[in-house]
Amino acid sequence: MSFEQDTERFDLWIKNHFSIVSRKFRIADLRDHSQGRGLIATEDIKKDETLFEFSRDHIINVDSATLGQLQNRSNKEILISLNQWEALILCLAYELMLAEKSRWWDYLRILPQTIDKFSTPMFWKDEDLGFLKPSCVTDRLGKQEAEKTYFKLVPEYCIKLGVPELAKFLTINQFHAVASLIMSYSFDVDHAEEVSEGEEERGENHADVQDDVQDDVQDDVQDDPQTDLQTDLQADLQADLQTDLGAESIKFDTYLKSMVPLADTLNANTTLVNATLHYDQEQLVMKAIKDIKKDEQIYNTYGDLPNSEILRKYGYIELPSSAAEFADIPRTVLVDFYKQKYTKTFPTIKNVHHLVDILIQQIAESDYLEETLDDSDDGIVLERYEVYANGELIPEFILLLLILSTLFESFRTDSKWFRKLCRHMDKFEGEFQIFVNRVIAKCYQLLEERSIVTDAFIDDLKQIVQSRLDQYPEKIVSSECILPKDFSLQLSNKQIADVVLSNEVRCLQDILDGKFPPNEDGSEEPKFEVISNQKFLKNVLKRKREDDEKRSERKNRRVQRS
Ligand SMILES: C[S@@+](CC[C@H](N)C(=O)[O-])C[C@H]1O[C@@H](n2cnc3c(N)ncnc32)[C@H](O)[C@@H]1O
User: Fold this and answer.
1) I want to staple 1 with a disulfide (CB 3.0 to 4.6 A). Which of 5, 278, 395, 501 is the partner?
2) Is the CB of residue 465 less than 8 Å from the CB of residue 387?
């Protein structure tokens, strides 16, 4: 069947099954724009108008899928012992294997079902992946983790579920295709009982909620506000690396990863978004969130994602940039920076590299931070830190850097004292640990209670950002590279990678251009005041100074007595 015929059958299926389908849009062929299908307004649409509405039983998940109903419905018990990704992969693969016997076939047939239909870096050649370096996105592809999941499920779970024929259907390539399909099309839909009666939730669509099986089958739930985004994304990206495949079972989740017909036909744009999915206990509803003019495309949002993540999950990029670009600073860059700085400043002190490791460890294990930070699950020592455009940094990075820069500057005031401290750096609750803990507490108070950082912090920040920038190709940093104007599937992977890297470089350069501290949202007021490091050190070193004075008084008295 042709592309057009598939669209027509799907359109008919929608009209037969959905309770409301507005006449004011059509499913359009946007292949000329490299966007596959999408929805286009055929008349003006007003903000808050319903575009379509349907009941929960039309979506595909563990509750509704054919696989769960088999073996007297006992399959559902087996499926909910798996994690969201594993369960939906098996359910969706089974529907695809059923083909026309599946009640969703008219929907399924318009979806990409083979790996050649995906343009995500997961399927790029190693040589092309090299174009994305040094972006951390290459660490998040998770191909190996996906393969681990494959060998967990196939054939063992196909047999357990009483469908050994699924093991034949689900070759490794078919598995990658189903997983990629879920990554770029699924929604996480809250259980009906999670939505209070009469209340309507804002549906979390694709990237808001969907993660990729390739990178660990993790859960990726983001809320929209930019403020939450940064911490949420951070947590998600950490989860990408940390989640143990299959470690979490659906049983304890309040949502189900689901395939949602028609809602997933909307393309996305971080700035042009004009519709979102909402749901109540019974229905899912796609609503306009802005006035939409006739002939305009109806766009959803896949979350506030930078181009690196849009590419990784969905296989396209936004030009010139997404509304939520960020670059990553790996922790190793920060640690190497301080190791070099200590070595240069204290050339005669042995073990300064070990000292930096100890400092990082002590900050990671700080009881004070664990008790004080609101969302302290991962603490402030993370694998990597996002640097957003216009000088926005995540709070964990600011605090860690303030502590490390303050410690360094404190040690620099008195190298004799520092040398002595170093002798005790491994000692539990020794002088060294007590001082580090004091600095952690003082920095936390300065930052969290008074929104203040120091000029030493700014200097270190700029140097660390410069070290990270030095890892990017010269042509990208110097903006010599000519970037494409529009996204097209004809773009080479090198051109796409250049856009990703250029956007990351731009975020880093914003820091060098003095955009930190950024202003408070909607105000001219900077988010942080910058004070002189000397002023802050007076406070931090007050106790040391008092101890020094007492010691010197005692010494003087001894001298006078003798
Ligand atoms: C949820 S689907 C949207 C429907 C899809 N266009 C289709 O034909 O089935 C997500 C996929 O649509 C494509 N897509 C979505 N938004 C896009 C955009 N702004 N530009 C290019 N492709 C886009 C990408 O291939 C992405 O993986």
Assistant:
1) 5
2) yes
Nearest-angstrom CA–CA distance, 470 and 512: 13
Please state the φ and ψ torsions of residue 558, each to the nearest 5 degrees. -60, -40
- Measuring CA to CA, which residue among 300, 254, 354 is closest to residue 25? 300
Q: List, chain by chain if needed, residues with CB within 6 Å of any ligand 1 atom.
A: 34-38, 184-185, 206, 264-265, 267-269, 314-316, 487
Token code pair at residue 280: 């109540």
Can you give the pTM of this predicted structure?
0.89
How high is the ipTM of this complex? Answer: 1.00
Report the DSSP pairing between strands 452-454 and 529-531.
Answer: parallel
What is the pLDDT averaged over residues 280-286?
A: 92
Residue bearing the CA closest to ligand 1, atom 4: 265
Rounded to the nearest 10 degrees, how much is the dihedral formed by the CA atoms of 253, 255, 257, 263? -170
Which two three-digit tokens encode residue 486?
């529009």
pLDDT at 204 over 80: no
**Alpha-carbon distances of 169 from 118, 326, 338, rounded to whole Å:** 19, 40, 53
What does the alpha-carbon distance between residue 92 and residue 55 come to, in Å, rounded to a whole number?
19
Q: Is the pLDDT of residue 471 over 50?
A: yes
Alpha carbon 445 to chain centroid, angstroms: 28
Other C-beta atoms closer than 10 Å to the C-beta of 205 total: 27
User: Are 503 and 510 contacting, i.e. CB atoms less than 8 angstroms apart?
Assistant: no
Looking at the CA of residue 120, tell me the nearest atom of ligand 1: 27
The domain 1-59+260-303 having CATH identifier 2.170.270.10: the answer here is: yes
Which of the 8 DSSP states describes residue 99?
G
Q: What is the pLDDT of residues 487-518, one digit of tens each?
A: 998 999 999 999 999 999 999 999 999 999 99
Taking CA atoms, 345 is separated from 352, 412, 521, 534, 535, in Å, by 10, 8, 39, 18, 21
Per domain, the residue ranges of the chain are 1-59+260-303, 61-185+199-259, 328-468+516-561
Please name which of 367, 524, 530 lies closest in space to residue 450, comparing C-alpha atoms.
Answer: 530
Question: Which residue out of 6, 35, 123 has the highest number of ligand 1 atoms within 8 Å of its CB and is therefore the one to mutate?
Answer: 35
Please name every residue paired with 204 in a beta bridge, in sequence order, or none if there are none.
188
Q: What is the distance between the alpha carbons of residues 500 and 487, in angstroms, rounded to a whole number? A: 12
Ligand 1, atom 16, residue with closest C-alpha? 267
Whether the per-residue pLDDT at 98 is higher than 50: the answer is yes
Number of Cβ atoms within 10 Å of the Cβ of 437: 17
Residue with CA at minimum distance from ligand 1 atom 21: 35
Residue 13: both structure tokens together: 């299926």
For 90, the enclosing helix (H) or strand (E) is: helix 84-98
Measured from the CA of 119, which atom of ligand 1 is nearest? 25
Per-residue tokens: 543: 């106790």
Q: Which residues contact 276 (CB under 8 A, 6 or more apart)?
A: 202, 203, 205, 286, 287, 289, 300, 301
The residue type found at 369 is L
Span 248-260, pLDDT tens digits: 889 889 999 999 9
Rounded to an integer, what distance in angstroms lies between the CA atom of residue 540 and that of residue 468?
30
Please tell me the distance between residue 36's alpha carbon and the centre of ligand 1 in angstroms.
Answer: 6
Higher pLDDT, 480 or 387: 387
CA distance 57 to 509: 49
Query: Which residues lie below 8 Å from residue 548, measured CB to CB, with a gap of 6+?
Result: none
CA of 232 to the centre of ligand 1 (A): 24
